[in-house]
Amino acid sequence: MLLNNVLCRSASAAAAATTTRRFCVTGNRSASPCQRTVFLCLPNVQRQHNLQQYLAKAFSSLNGKMVKQGPRPLVICGPSGSGKSTLLKKLFKEFPDTFGFSVSHTTRKPRPGEENGVHYHFVSVEEMQGAIEKGEFIETAVFSGNMYGTSKKAVENVQHQGKVCVLDIEIEGVKQIRNSDRLNPLLVFVNPPSIEELERRLRGRQTETEESLQKRLNTARKEIEYGTEAGNFDVVVQNNNLKQAYEDLRNFIVRELETQQGQDVFFVTSLVSNYKPFEV
Ligand SMILES: Nc1nc2c(ncn2[C@@H]2O[C@H](COP(=O)(O)OP(=O)(O)O)[C@@H](O)[C@H]2O)c(=O)[nH]1
Ligand SMILES: Nc1ncnc2c1ncn2[C@@H]1O[C@H](COP(=O)(O)OP(=O)(O)O)[C@@H](O)[C@H]1O
């Protein structure tokens, strides 16, 4: 039996399950496809079977809010050139099994080195519009003359692997997600030191034409205003110095995941402690 939650029988098991809320009651580890599942192995089959039934009943009688759908996704937002991709690259490198990237759709052209299906799904305007009409997206936006969107499938693909889903999206997409009760993500805003430094970094990246660069800088002013306004994001990561910015991002995420984990561990532990064998 696999439920989207964490079951920990000890503090060390809780520590081991630092990232996912997957939960599995079984005596057989190979039975579960999910990663970093915490297993509860019971001494005999009969007892295990009864606990499975007990937990299934307990979980199904709870309202949906208590049984979460896994770890909260992480949305990272900030002006073009603020350092989102650079920070995320470091995060994926440090925690390859914990975080998974939500691969967006876009109508912009690939840059050298960008792979279809890895960095983006590069599509035509017609394909994008068709997919929007079919209701395939959680959110969409137009940025600097190109369409972008997060498909339901992109997020599900990551969540099905038991990973924390990471979305790199701009402000209008963030607003759409904030206004829906869909993802309930943690919201991170990456703030550059100044517009002047942002311009230097964007020019240094050598990915933009002069026109696209000016569009990005114009949008950046509004984005910084919205992003740094109190209450719009859970944290603002100031990216003056890359090492410090990464440390701030990392610390925030780890703290948040531990908090989420702690809440679930407490919740499931109390369920298990109420379990009486053979009373299902
Ligand atoms: N709303 C929304 N924004 C996206 C999505 N994918 C990327 N973006 C944002 O689109 C903007 C432009 O991205 P990109 O063309 O890759 O340029 P870069 O940010 O300068 O590297 C960035 O602010 C991204 O965060 C998406 O699926 N939805
Ligand atoms: N703290 C920093 N100091 C100097 N350059 C940085 C810093 N952070 C990122 N960069 C550089 O700025 C450019 C834009 O960063 P990038 O991660 O591509 O931004 P974004 O994904 O937000 O558009 C890249 O060339 C990157 O190497």
Describe the structure.
- The chain is α/β, with parallel strands linked by helices.
- The chain has a domain at 74-262: Rossmann fold, CATH 3.40.50.300.
- It is built from nine helices and twelve strands.
- It has a five-stranded parallel beta sheet with strand order 5-10-4-11-12. The protein has a four-stranded mixed beta sheet with strand order 7-6-9-8. A three-stranded mixed beta sheet has the order 1-2-3.
- Strand 8 (137-143) and strand 9 (146-151) form a beta hairpin.
- The structure holds guanosine-5'-diphosphate and adenosine-5'-diphosphate (ADP).
- Monomer. Interacts with RD3.
- One of its GO terms (cellular component) is photoreceptor inner segment.
- GO terms for molecular function: ATP binding; GMP kinase activity.
Uncertain runs: 1-43, 63-68
What separation lies between the terminal Cα atoms?
16 Å
Query: What is the string of SSEs from the N terminus onward?
Result: EHEEHEHEEEHEEHEHEHHEH
What is the helix tally?
9
In terms of structural class, how would the helical and strand content be classed?
Answer: alpha/beta
Bound molecules: guanosine-5'-diphosphate, adenosine-5'-diphosphate
- Evaluate the radius of gyration: 21 Å
Mean pLDDT rating = 81
Q: Name the CATH superfamily classification of the domain at 74-262.
A: P-loop containing nucleotide triphosphate hydrolases
- Biggest β-sheet: strands ordered side by side in the sheet: 5-10-4-11-12
Largest sheet: 5 strands, parallel
The helical percent reads 40-55%
Which overall shape is indicated by the principal axes computed on the Cα atoms? globular
Per DSSP E runs of 2 or more residues, the count of β-strands stands at: 12
| CATH architecture assignment of the domain at 74-262 | 3-Layer(aba) Sandwich
- Top CATH class of the domain at 74-262: Alpha Beta
| Proportion of residues in β-strands | 15-25%
Protein name: Guanylate kinase
Main location: cytoplasm
Subunit structure: Monomer. Interacts with RD3.
Subcellular location: Cytoplasm, Cytosol; Photoreceptor inner segment
